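Quick one, tokens below. Sequence please?
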């Protein structure tokens, strides 16, 4: 059985081949991870935030498919120079998907993970400062919840695989 390639846009393919802001940021103000090791999509976001709460620099590391790398790359491009509040309010997985020219429906979760990692980083930044801005809701955002659900699913699957392996021994 042959595999049919996914219909990625040229922009997704370009960002996959030449991602922007790829790599660990040693002087990051905050980092956050989102992803599912079971399906292979993992993103670590690094943000450098100044005293005016502006994102001066954003970078990422990714383990995943073309859509995962492309969406993480475009998010880092989009948020640089934004205030944390603007990034929180304006960045959605739908906006990211539009920015890359669309994604196959089976890859929408990649945009969700990229924005989930960004919002986790912003939330973590304020938690580290023991501050709760009114615009950061107490309840997790849609993207944060989805990233968390994927991680929980991965843990459950890993446990089941371990049990199955032990039963085979």
């Amino acid at each position: 059985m042959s595999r049919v390639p996914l219909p990625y846009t040229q922009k997704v393919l370009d960002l996959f081949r030449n991602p922007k802001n790829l790599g660990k940021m040693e002087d990051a103000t905050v980092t956050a991870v989102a992803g599912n090791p079971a399906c292979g999509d993992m993103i670590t976001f690094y943000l450098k935030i100044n005293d005016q709460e502006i994102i001066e620099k954003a970078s990422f590391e990714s383990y995943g498919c073309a859509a995962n790398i492309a969406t993480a790359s475009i998010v880092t491009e989009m948020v640089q120079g934004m205030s944390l509040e603007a990034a929180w309010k304006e960045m959605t997985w739908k906006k990211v998907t539009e920015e890359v020219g669309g994604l196959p429906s089976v890859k929408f979760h990649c945009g969700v993970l990229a924005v989930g990692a960004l919002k986790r980083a912003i939330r973590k930044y304020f938690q580290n400062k023991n501050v709760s801005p009114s615009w950061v809701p107490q309840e997790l955002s849609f993207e944060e919840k989805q990233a968390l659900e994927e991680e929980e699913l991965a843990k459950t699957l890993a446990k089941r695989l371990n049990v199955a392996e032990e039963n085979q021994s």
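The chain has one domain: 10-168. The chain has six helices and three strands.
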